[in-house]
Amino acid sequence: MDEVKVVVxxxxxxxxxxxxxxxxxxxxxxxIDVEVGAMALAPVPTPKVLWHKPPVLAIAAVPxxxxxxxxxxxxxxxxxxxxAGAAIRRLHNAPLPPWPGRSLDxxxxxxDVQCEWLITNGVLPAELVTRNRQVAEAALRPWAPVFTHGDxxxxxxxxxxxxxxxxIDWSEASQGDALFDLAILTLGHEEHLGDVVAGxxxxxxxxxIRAWWSLRSLLAIRWLVEHGFDPFxxxxxxxxxxxxx
Length: 245
What we know:
CATH class: Alpha Beta
Helix content: 40-55%
Number of helices: 8
Structural class: alpha+beta
Radius of gyration: 18 Å
CATH topology: Aminoglycoside 3'-phosphotransferase, Chain: A, domain 2
Number of strands: 10
Shape: globular
CATH architecture: Alpha-Beta Complex
């Protein structure tokens, strides 16, 4: 151990790496409680909890490397992407966690607010926002809730060769839409959607997954900008929206 690495830091939370230990500091104790509870319930590989002393959670690093990163080509094999799909299916088949997810009405209301902000502040052209708002509409339909990770970015899934070694960052876990998890995993990596769906092992509505790509990107841009991230980077949220045109 020769350094403390800042993995992510903003006004809501920070994650530090010290050797093979990650220290997560969160202003919202409820998020940490959900993360600990979800990892205990999830039927997939998760990090080992070393200790939990609010507001800090210490977890062990998982072996392997991230499936990829948004805005960068993934070097993982098609079999590894399929293994991620199979792991998600096991999660979705598990008993529901006790935490309810966001309601359709809340998501739709938030989407309207964020679209208005994007247009009013000149962040994106109105045509781009309006088109993706139309695409997003397909995701706003009733669904049978499953155990969802809730923030299944591809850099939260770790692989070694063709196998899954761990899934991290469970603070958004809840009852939710199965296709939302599949969409977040493949956001910006549409070329691997077929591999994930093959591993998932059941028919899914690809139009709804694409709708979630638009919806999630529209919802995320303001938060990303206000917390020091760049949704305009190549391959990231803005490019995802442009691809729907």
